[in-house]
Give the backbone structure.
Amino acid sequence: MVNKVRGDIDHYKTLGIAAGATQAQVKQAYRKLAKQFHPDSQPDSSNNQAATDKIASVNAAYEVLGDVQERQRYDVERQLIAKEKLRDRTARTVDSQAQYQKRRKRAGSNATIEQWLRNVFNPTDRLIGKIIKPLKAEVRSLSADPFDDELMEAFQGYLEACQESLEKAQTKFKSMPNPASVASGAANLYYCLNQLEDGLEEIERFTYTYDDSYLHTGQELFRIAAGLRKDAKAEIKAVL
């Protein structure tokens, strides 16, 4: 049997359960969905094809997760893929740091510190705060019941707002080269934005897999970003 992990298929998402669910919970989720989407339970004939497609994916998911050995193999492959993604992210970060340093050396800047603080640092920092500060409260609210549609919708709304703020912050940060005297602080701010981008990507994965490992990784990346933001402020303050 070939476990479908590398595509868009996630068996845990299909059954609406967390990766740490017990075998009893796997079976319970399967039975609920099998009953819900069984063609005989669809009064509207126009829904029959959709129900057939859904029950096929539910059966495929249970074929893997309902078998302990198959599930173990599936989980191992998922972990390997997660490690591959982490290595790719690390490589991207190293590359982006090198590219940033090259651009900074080439660009130089005639801007004064005051101009850069007013036009770049301060607005970028405010946008970063809008992303980082609400996370703890948003996670706490969602933890009441991650499977509650309204709670998850609210959490996804927060993530969408974060993505918008991040894109604005990235654009603002690139709008003006930093003065050489604040290079170290500007670099930490740049790395902070990178960590937030990766963190949001991980947390977004959690919203459709219900795999807590993605949420924990995202929270750790946010924690690193907060530290980089703090360092950036301290380094810039030291030269003023």
